[in-house]
Amino acid sequence: MCSLSFFFLFISSTLIFILGIYYLVFDYSVFIEWEVFSLNSSMVIMTFIFDWMSLIFMSFVMYISSLVIYYSEDYMSGEKNINRFIMIVLMFILSMAFLIISPNLISILLGWDGLGLVSYCLVIYYQNVSSYNAGMLTALSNRIGDVSILISIAWMLNFGSWNYICYCNFISDSFEMSIITMLIILASMTKSAQIPFSSWLPAAMAAPTPVSALVHSSTLVTAVIYLLIRFSSMLCIYNLGWFLLLIGCMTMFMAGLGANFEFDLKKIIALSTLSQLGLMMSILSMGYLKLAFFHLLSHALFKALLFMCAGSMIHNLKDSQDIRFMGSVVNFMPLTSICFNVSSLSLCGMPFLAGFYSSDLILEMVCLSWINLLIYFLFFISTGLTASYSFRLIYYSMSSDNNFYSNFCFNDGMYFISFSMLSLLFIAVLGGSFLSWLIFPIPYMIVLPYYLKFLTILVVILGSYLGYCISSINFSFDLFSLSMFSFVSFSGSMWFMPYISTNLISYFPLSFGYYSLKSFDYGWGEFFGGQGLYSLFIYLMNYIQDFYDSNFKVYLLIFIFWMFILIMLFFI
Fold it and tell me: β-strands 29-39, 42-51: how paired?
């Protein structure tokens, strides 16, 4: 099943990528419509759009999915129901394909809800308490976005069709379209885990690592960026870009800061995904659509590789995810270490790797744009924090002694995992330049002063040094260390957002339910309700029973009473 799915997806991705390049070179777009049924002048039409953007994105999704499925052959080797796992992953890919090629809100809802439902099934795959909690947080957070899509479908009834792409450029003063745009932005914020819906993304790491490699690199969370690219003209018309810019920058800064104080390997990579999502969202809101799409594709390549390397290390460390147990991994797993370091450096934006071509271009365009000082500093500080947590991760995993069991034994001997990592390694190194030549046939000429031109690489170097400094912090019991510890607690817990999303929301309804149960159901409700009526009926039944038990006595008393009255009347 794994090998068959791998070959099918790999061949499909190759063919679709070639077709996407052909459409890009000749600037083609194909629109396919199929009318399912018509109801009161509202036609339910299945619509598909095939242009260079949808085809190249779908080819990337299928390529990464094929390698993830091949990777699962080793990683999930102890799983009895491996075919069920592969089927769920294939359903996930099908939902993603629906979302990519649909310019129609009805078919988008099919893909959108399919992604939400299947991701819930994958998060709770291991079926323990933490998985169930994470799955419930993921499902309920994403449900807000699902409801927003449903309401926007209802609002689009005003236009007689759900093909939003037909209306985006023509209805600039429509109140309905402004409502729909705001609902789409809300849905995008939930699905891409922007502030204040960020807590579900690290919680979703309860899923198996191959799923994390797929979900958090190229599918679930990045699909939202693609959807907003389709709705980008509405952001400009209704001037909502400033809101998304602020939200994206705050998310990028919060995730980068939190990852520097996290010790769970998969959560660090999840927070780096969140940081990159904030970067994509903010650059998209500034109007650079191709640049956001370019970074989406390059990010998918190195982030999938990073998750695969993390999965290989976790698998060899007997499912231990704490980076403090790692160390000297490079001595035992050289291939994994090479791939891990290359993908981490690509994430930082080291020159001539995939991430450099997009992130460096983004930061230079930020220097060239009309933005305020706060946004400018948030962009560059977040880039420094990205380099910081990447080098901190390399420091903990590659240097010093190994802190695992004394009789450990691990190596790079697993064929399927190694093949998948190597297949992504070459793309993660060469893919950025190749994509930049394809998507930008005329190169950007950005003229900046030399101190701004070198600011990106300077920020990366300073951030790397900061990561080393954070790794060597030792806390004591003086006042400075205690205040520093409070800052670390606040930053490392994502600004207490998981607490706000779970305990704070559930505490007041649950406490209200407890006190109402105590006061009404167990208090006055018992007195005037079931127990009170029960006691009253028991009392009345006993009284009536006593009456029937002494029936003859009562009859004689009544007879004597009447005889006494008759005698009194007779004598009177």
Answer: antiparallel
CA distance 68 to 212: 10
Other CB atoms within 10 A of residue 106 CB: 18
Q: Confirm if 221 and 192 have CB atoms less than 8 A apart.
A: yes
Q: How would you write 48-82 as a 3-class SS string?
A: EEEEHHHHHHHHHHHHHHHHHHHHHHHHCCCCCCH
Of 341, 465, 327, nearest to 396 (Cα)? 327
CA distance 302 to 421: 10
Give the distance, in angstroms, between the CA of residue 331 and the centroid of all CA atoms in the same chain.
Answer: 34
- In tens, the pLDDT along 249-295 reads 888 888 888 888 888 888 888 888 888 888 988 888 888 888 888 88
Distance CA 44, CA 314 (A): 47
At residue 392, what is the residue type?
R
Helices (H) and strands (E) in the chain, counts: 26, 2
Q: What is the C-alpha to C-alpha distance for residues 171 and 183, in angstroms, rounded to an integer?
A: 17
Tokens of residue 75, six digits:
């990683």
CB 84 within 8 Å of CB 434: no
Which helix or strand (DSSP H or E) is residue 34 part of?
strand 29-39
Q: Is 475 a residue whose pLDDT tops 80?
A: no
Residue 73's CB: how many other CB atoms inside 10 A? 21
Amino acid at 141: S
Residue among 256, 352, 354, 260 nearest 300 (CA): 354
Tens-digit pLDDT profile for residues 109-133: 888 888 888 888 888 888 888 888 8
Q: Which residues of 491-517 are buried (b: 16+ CB within 10 A; e: fewer)?
A: bbebbebbeebbeeeeeeeeeeeeeee
Q: What is the pTM of this model?
A: 0.84
DSSP tag of 169 = T
Token pair for 306: 């990073």
What are the start-end ranges of the H helices in 76-104?
82-100
Taking alpha carbons only, the member of 206, 404, 256, 411 closest to residue 324 is: 404
Percent of the chain with pLDDT over 90: 0
Nearest to 323 by CA among 400, 234, 241: 400
Rg (CA), the chain: 32
What's the rounded Cα separation, in Å, for the pair 326 and 330?
10
Measured CA to CA, the distance from residue 103 to residue 322 in angstroms comes to: 43
Task: In whole angstroms, give the CA distance from residue 135 to residue 547.
Answer: 63
Residue with tokens 């009834």: 157
pLDDT band at residue 412 under the 50/70/90 scheme: confident
- How many other β-carbons are positioned within 10 Å of the β-carbon of residue 473? 11
Strand residues in 109-199 grouped as ranges (E) = none
Residues 6+ apart with CB under 8 A from 486: none
Q: What does the alpha-carbon distance between residue 180 and residue 153 come to, in Å, rounded to a whole number?
A: 8
List the structure tokens of 30. Answer: 């194909």
| pLDDT tens column, 494-545 | 777 777 777 777 777 888 888 888 877 777 777 777 777 888 888 888 887 7
